[in-house]
């Protein structure tokens, strides 16, 4: 049986250890940009949503510069369903005809974006919602697959509006809709947008929150998490088929951003409460970290 003094000592030791462990990371990352892609399962559960939002506000409060890029695939599906429009996908991308494009834009830019903005503001942050059209942030071009409609790729990025906001203490929240030169709207995969923004800002980190632990040797077995790998190892995992399905575009987008100078890309389980803080501010980490060959620990 532990006496009271011992108990208090132990409890303090644990709390202080966690805080104290965070200090070198806070110092290392102060002033640095972290692009967080938020979507999928972590967005469906409202309690989890609150912890993700609090973590983002935490990052901002301790001096990092978070930029949020959000998805919302499941919410688009549910509105398409209500409107009697069938959701269709080709190689993981939503087939986007004109009526679907309208719904994607209304749901992502109107509903999901503003909800995240409001939640961040309620949690004490200062968020501003944008899509690719605002401040000419993203110019889109057709992705080019036959029969996929208004699915876009990032043609160019102008980060002026993001820098203006971040320098004034705002947290930009970006939805993945952008226009081409003619003003035509395009639906871009949110992971792709996050990767391109991270690269354009030369970010410290690109963090993709998803619904799996990270990259797994065997995707059915969570105990096979690969904690760290470099660009070549990541490419090999795609080549050998270990990385498959929806994980392929995620890994490709991490690899592309690393090749363009982002220091580290992380694939994390958004279902684990506070996975963002655990990955950034503790020695152990919690998901998969991908690094470029230039990385020195
Ligand atoms: N090696 C792997 N490690 C982890 N997940 C993998 C792997 N290979 C394929 N996957 C699949 O990729 C999925 C994640 O992609 P996706 O469902 O598109 O995520 P999101 O909806 O968050 O964008 C996982 O749920 C898993 O089924
Ligand atoms: C072209 C394309 O597929 N766009 C995605 C954009 C949203 C997204 O990426 O949402 P998640 O991250 O939640 O999947 C879509 O329409 O679903």
Automatic annotation (TrEMBL):
SUPFAM superfamilies noted in UniProt: Carbamate kinase-like
Keywords: Amino-acid biosynthesis, Arginine biosynthesis, ATP-binding, Cytoplasm, Kinase, Nucleotide-binding, Transferase
Domain Aspartate/glutamate/uridylate kinase stretches: 33-269
Pfam families: AA_kinase
Binding site for substrate: 72-73, 94, 187
Pathway: Amino-acid biosynthesis; L-arginine biosynthesis; N(2)-acetyl-L-ornithine from L-glutamate: step 2/4
Keyword Nucleotide-binding: yes
Coiled-coil stretches: none
Reactions that this protein is recorded to catalyse: N-acetyl-L-glutamate + ATP = N-acetyl-L-glutamyl 5-phosphate + ADP
Record HAMAP family: ArgB (MF_00082)
GO CC annotation, single: cytoplasm
Principal cellular location given in the protein's record: cytoplasm
Family: Belongs to the acetylglutamate kinase family. ArgB subfamily.
GO biological process terms, semicolon-separated: L-arginine biosynthetic process via ornithine
Protein function: Catalyzes the ATP-dependent phosphorylation of N-acetyl-L-glutamate.
Location within or outside the cell: Cytoplasm
This protein's name: Acetylglutamate kinase
Listed EC numbers: 2.7.2.8
Enzyme class, spelled out: transferase
Site residues (Transition state stabilizer), renumbered to this chain: 37, 250
Gene3D superfamilies xrefs: Acetylglutamate kinase-like
GO molecular function term, any single one: ATP binding
């Amino acid at each position: 049986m532990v006496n009271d003094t011992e108990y208090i000592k132990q409890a303090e030791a644990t709390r202080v250890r966690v805080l104290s462990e965070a200090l070198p990371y806070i110092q290392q990352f102060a002033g640095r940009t972290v692009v967080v892609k938020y979507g999928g399962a972590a967005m469906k559960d409202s309690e989890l949503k609150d912890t993700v939002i609090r973590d983002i506000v935490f990052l901002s409060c301790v001096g990092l510069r978070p930029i949020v890029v959000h998805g919302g695939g499941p919410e688009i599906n549910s509105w398409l369903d209500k409107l009697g429009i069938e959701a269709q996908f080709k190689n993981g991308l939503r087939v986007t005809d004109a009526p679907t494009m309208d719904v994607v834009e209304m749901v992502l830019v109107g509903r999901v974006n503003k909800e995240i903005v409001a939640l961040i503001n309620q949690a004490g942050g200062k968020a501003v919602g944008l899509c690719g059209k605002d401040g000419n942030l993203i110019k889109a071009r057709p992705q080019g697959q036959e029969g996929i409609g208004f699915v876009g790729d990032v043609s160019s990025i102008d980060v002026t509006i993001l820098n203006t906001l971040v320098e004034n203490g705002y947290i930009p929240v970006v939805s993945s809709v952008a226009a081409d030169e003619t003003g035509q709207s395009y639906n871009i995969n949110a992971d792709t947008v996050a990767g391109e923004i991270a690269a354009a800002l030369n970010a410290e980190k690109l963090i993709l929150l998803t619904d799996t632990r990270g990259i797994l040797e065997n995707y059915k077995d969570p105990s096979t998490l690969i904690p760290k790998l470099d660009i070549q190892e990541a490419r090999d995992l795609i080549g050998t088929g270990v990385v498959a399905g929806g994980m392929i575009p995620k890994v490709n987008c991490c690899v592309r951003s690393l090749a363009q100078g982002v220091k580290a890309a992380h694939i994390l389980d958004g279902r684990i409460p506070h996975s963002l803080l655990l990955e950034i501010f503790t020695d152990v980490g919690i998901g998969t970290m991908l690094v470029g060959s230039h990385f020195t620990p």
